[in-house]
């Protein structure tokens, strides 16, 4: 293994934005609801998020989803009528069953987070983001401080908090859903999503119980640059899918960063039974698959046709895609169990 370095993973639909965004992930958050002093006032919700205290008086009425994954969660919680904007909207298509609910929601930005001016123009009172990257003032985005000064509460997906990037888990999503349920007083809808997700994970766990775990390497390929992924929610996804991960957080290469540039020779020496690789479109998948097939013809993963492409968006922290991709990988590794 070589030393840690950046990796060009696609985030927000644009691979050039990925490193900054994927570095931004954190602490779990707790939530407490207390009655306001005036009974006529709405319920007050306070919670810790990314090391900050968020206080929300009453359910927000003007909400912005800063990425389709967050917009999807808001829609599934029944909050379509509260959305005043959606961002990075062309980075990922919304699922067919909820896409129509967002048809009239203004698109504030396509592949990138919205500019400071465009976001503030819709006067949001709640902004829900996958990472802290979306609030990088140096990029021309509204900072958290600027949004709070304008009266908006800012919530970052738990797995998207900076301090959480190296130790994130799929279950971080449940923290977010519980918090959103409290903030918007949609606890039942949140609990249903959590129950469904836990049930899906339990089904996979039962299906693969007792398997002789295959050795799986997760990589990212851009051109001929090869990087290994060894920490964060990506590693947890592999574990839940029944993998014996080639790269893991206890290895020195991943002590400070979840990814590390590696040589083709080092990957070949590991002889993984399967390789999982994230892609941002069909063209990227075809290119990576061709690279792996021609570069590693003798690798067991290639010989056994276990090159597993997954959508980059599904590997991103704090998304429902984290749940579905666990099953996707497990089904490819152990098709006889499904």
Describe the main β-sheet briefly: 6 strands, mixed
Integer count of domains: 2
Q: What helical percentage do the residues reach?
A: 25-40%
CATH architecture of the largest domain: 3-Layer(aba) Sandwich
Order of helices and strands: HEEEEHEHHEHEHHEEHEEHEHHEHH
**CATH fold annotation of the largest domain:** Rossmann fold
* Rg: 20 Å
Cα shape:
globular
| Weakly predicted, low-confidence segments | 1-41
**What is the β-strand count?**
13
Quick one: CATH superfamily of the largest domain? Nitrogenase molybdenum iron protein domain
Classified by CATH, the class of the largest domain is: Alpha Beta
How many helix segments? 13
Beta-strand residue percentage: 15-25%
The separation of the N and C termini measures 34 Å
Question: In terms of structural class, how would the helical and strand content be classed?
Answer: alpha/beta
**On the 0-100 scale, what is the average pLDDT?**
89
């Amino acid at each position: 293994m070589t030393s840690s370095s950046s990796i060009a993973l696609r985030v927000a639909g644009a691979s050039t934005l990925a490193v900054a965004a994927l570095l931004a992930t954190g602490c779990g958050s707790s939530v407490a609801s207390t009655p306001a002093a005036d009974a006529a006032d709405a319920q007050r919700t306070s919670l810790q998020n990314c090391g900050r205290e968020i206080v929300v008086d009453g359910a927000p009425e003007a909400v912005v989803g800063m990425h389709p994954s967050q917009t999807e969660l808001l829609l599934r919680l029944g909050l379509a009528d509260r959305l005043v904007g959606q961002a990075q909207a062309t980075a990922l298509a919304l699922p067919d069953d909820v896409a129509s609910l967002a048809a009239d929601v203004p698109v504030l930005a396509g592949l990138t987070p919205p500019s400071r001016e465009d976001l503030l123009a819709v006067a949001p009172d709640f902004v829900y983001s996958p990472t802290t990257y979306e609030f990088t003032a140096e990029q021309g985005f509204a900072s958290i401080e600027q949004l709070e000064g304008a009266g908006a509460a800012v919530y970052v997906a738990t797995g998207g908090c900076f301090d959480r990037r190296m130790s994130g888990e799929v279950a971080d999503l449940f923290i977010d859903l519980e918090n959103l349920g409290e903030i918007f007083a949609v606890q039942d809808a949140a609990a249903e999503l959590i129950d469904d997700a836990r049930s899906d994970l339990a089904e996979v766990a039962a299906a693969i119980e007792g398997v002789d775990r295959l050795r799986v390497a997760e990589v990212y390929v851009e051109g001929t640059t090869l990087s290994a992924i060894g920490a964060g929610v990506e590693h947890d996804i592999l574990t839940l899918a029944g993998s014996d991960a080639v790269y893991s957080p206890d290895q020195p290469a991943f002590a400070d960063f979840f990814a590390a540039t590696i040589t083709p020779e080092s990957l070949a020496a590991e002889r993984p039974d399967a390789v999982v690789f994230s892609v941002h479109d069909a063209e990227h998948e075809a290119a990576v698959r061709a690279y792996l097939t021609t570069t590693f013809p003798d690798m067991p993963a290639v010989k056994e046709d276990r090159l597993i492409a997954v959508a980059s968006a599904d590997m991103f922290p704090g998304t429902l895609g984290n749940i579905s991709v666990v099953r996707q990988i497990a089904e490819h590794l152990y098709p006889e169990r499904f």
